[in-house]
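Quick question about two entries, pasted in order.
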Amino acid sequence: MNRRELLFAAAAAAGGGQSLLASRSGAAALDKPAGDPADLTIAEAAGAIRAGTLTASDLTKACLGRIDARNPRINAIITPMREQALAQAAALDAEARTGRFRSALHGVPIALKDNIDTADAPTTNASALLKDHVPAKDAHVVRRLREAGAIIVAKANLAEFAVSPTNATSHYGPVRNPWSEDHVSGGSSGGSGAAVAAGMCFGALGTDSGGSVRIPSAWCGVVGLKPTAGLVSNGGAGPGIAILDTIGPIARTVEDVSLLLGAMTGYDPFDPASVERPREDYAAVPGRPVSALRIGVPRRPFFDGLDPEVAGAVDTALKTLATIAGSIRDVDFRWGDLPEGAFTAPDLLSYHSRPFAERPDAYQTRTRNIMQMLTEMLDDPKGGSPSHKLGEHVAMIRSIAQRQRTIDAAFDGFDILVLPTTKTLPPTVTAAVASEYGPGVEPLFSIENTMIFNLVGLPALSVPCGLSKDGLPIGMTIAGPRFSEVTLLALGAAYERRAGWRGSRPVGRDGRNNPVGRGEG
């Protein structure tokens, strides 16, 4: 019997109507799990709480200890919520002693990207402008997670106002990659991805306007999901680009992402983009069959210009997928004519115009350059009057919204798309800082493979699929029609099991000399 089978048997022995995780994830043990509890998956940690072998307080102290030990080097966390988290853990432990378990997340510590509102800690957006800002109330998704029993253990670092894909630009300094501290974590949810990879939390939330959940997930060797537009409320997150923004979960396994997503979804009448949908049992998804799925591989433009090591890892992953799915073939994925990034100017400036005019020096260099560029773009007399430009903006927003409603028709003859999450490996921190603190606004790499799924509103899941020769993680994206999260998660979990990537994590002081993965035992 391997380790996971032993955990499954122990969880089943805990039994009864209270043991939801025992039958689904097999993530508890008769004795306290060996090693540091911070290295468990969400499912394992939740199972241990159900079995009574670990408490919420045990898990919270383990995460806080990992933050104390690793954050000075990684810089993934802006605000550890020590007192709040320990108090919440104690209350949840008291509930557990009476046999009450709120959900599969009862007593599990998670982190939040620090642009998601919390009423009991600052929400800084990684900016000097908001370093002391404490919101009046929690974001909608934070309320849902707290109600589910998740413990908010920390607020995670990010690119200032979420405008950098490397996370080199933050008032609190760049986030470093736990697999190799010389390299960036990816952005803009870089603190969330790095914190999960380094064991500072069991899962985390990020926000994604063009790849900001999936890029750090790919580069930090963890799993990240951008849900379908409107499935998760954005209320209390931002400021950002309303029609592109989505809050998404990051965790070590697809199963863990499924558990987080189940607690995050729900209609929010105060968020105009929120969609009312029937509830899905995402916790049951990872075991669903995938043998009938038709996989499409969109070679152009998503495979153009790939780093050879990325190309090799994704090619190997495609061969693995061919052994578990019904079919796999190259396809032409047509998304229609969509605007470039210029249409975001009014969205960003609607929030930043006044503070940028009053305190431009409070912004980090890259953010300041972007705001200046967008301001000049709207003020340029050669480009037409401001009212004309705003009219163009409204027309583009309508075009994007219409495409988001009709994009499912592009899945003609296939069910799922598979492609590289990023075309390159993560750059070094030195290169990213030099680029983002320079005079320009161009990123070091293309977000072409991630941005399109924000523009068309589709769900996209990034899963680890390999390591470079220097031990840097590589990610693969599984995307599908609107509200196909169940299918994406099922295929991602099946691939994860077959490839042996389940719960892989960096080892060692600087993250080098990594195992390929923990596999299934």
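Here is the second entry:
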Amino acid sequence: MTTASPIAASAALADLGLGSARIHLNPSVPELYGHALRLGEGEIAAGGPLAVRTDKTGRSPKDRFIVEDDLTRGAVWWGGFNTPTTPAVFAGLLSKMLAHAQGRELFVQELYAGADPEHRLGVRFVQEMAYHSLFVHNMFVRPDPGERASFHADWTVLNMPSFKADPEADGVRSETFIVVNFTRRMILVGGTQYAGENKKGIFGVLNFLLPESGVMPMHCSANVGEGGDVALFFGLSGTGKTTLSADPARKLIGDDEHGWTDHGVFNFEGGCYAKVIGLNPEAEPAIFRTTHTFGTVLENVVLGEGNVPDLDDGQLTENTRSAYPIEQIPNIQPGGVAGHPSNVVFLTADAFGVLPPISRLTPEQAMYFFLSGFTAKIPGTEQGVTEPQPTFSTCFGAPFMPRHPGEYARLLAGKVQESGAKVWLVNTGWSGGKYGEGQRMSIRHTRALLNAALNGELDGVRFGREPFFGLEIPTEVPGVPAEILNPRQAWADREAYDETARKLARMFRENFVRFEGGVDAAVTAAMPDPDAKA
């Protein structure tokens, strides 16, 4: 049945303040396919995925607002991605959206954010697009029948792409808006069809709420070995986070968002949202299979002859996506919960060719690199980028972190200290020179380095110290040429390396100025030294 009992449907309507809207409550996957096709939202690709195209091909971070009130005023780190708005602006938009919804067809999904019952949120998603309903059904934790009967919504997301704001009258920046109200426990989304706003909106809510319970929210993937050893992988887009955590010898806990409690880690999600541009079926066979599977949502993927997904075609966007239930991956951790991490890995794609392929971090360096969240853009990725440019995204997820970054860094440091986890910095970028001169790190070598770290093979290895960033570098790793371990030795022109390393060190220091007032002096002391002698 598309809807639950009339009583449950009426309660959902009452909670949302809706009257005459036609509600489909917790529709199934086949039903959502039927609705999406009927409404012209997409088409079926070869193998069975629902392929859709959206008006926006990515998130709209500049159009995201948090209501400033007594609950958030002193708790949110205002500025940057956390733009304040007023309760009156929220109330005005909500009133207009509810009026816009009257008489319309809406799809409601009741789902959990968080695999750990002690820390999960019940979320009611109310959406006008059937494809969005399928997306959240895939991405969040689906209640079992017993839980469904007693479901309680802690938060509500109202998402109506056809409702566009009047910026001047409604107090927002453009027709698109994402407004988060922690007091009302609601998120309003309008003027964008991009489904990722649903996922990241709730991620931001968890990032605000969980630290109050001593839980560390993390933008990372996670897996677990046969012996129960858990590894976390932090990294921005293009660093290899999804690829490196999808190890056939280890079980995937989740690919993007997790919490670290006093008992261990848990997945926030029930699905994966993988970037699939240029996806290699041989290197990533499990993810590739999802792009040809019933139930998957393909977002802005070009379909070729016979409606076969062309994963190499980026004419619509480079940000092509596959959203699928995690059960489509064969090697997963049941329940999405595991113990404390033994290893924490920070991934970076350093296009300057300065950072080592692997290095061991001190606790202070771990906080420093976590707050920095460094990777680099390569020429050609964006208009006007003609040489490597640094990207600093604090906590490896700046747009989703409402609190001061120092709060998250101290939480992570405490968890690492309590668990005894080792922290590693892994460079999947360039070696022997910057982009255009050196070479990209071999995925085979990176996997060998990671395996050595995760398996404890580096525990007895001698380490040296890199001068500019003070990083501890192993002098030998099985299966990896010794000459690439130390980045300075990998460059033919050592003076050119020194000059580039000093340049990058200065960039790090300039970026960190904004954090110095909110972190311990020991963390500030872990900054790189551009004046160091090589």
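Reply: The first strand starts at residue 22 and ends at 25. The two ends are 70 Å apart (CA to CA). Hope that helps.
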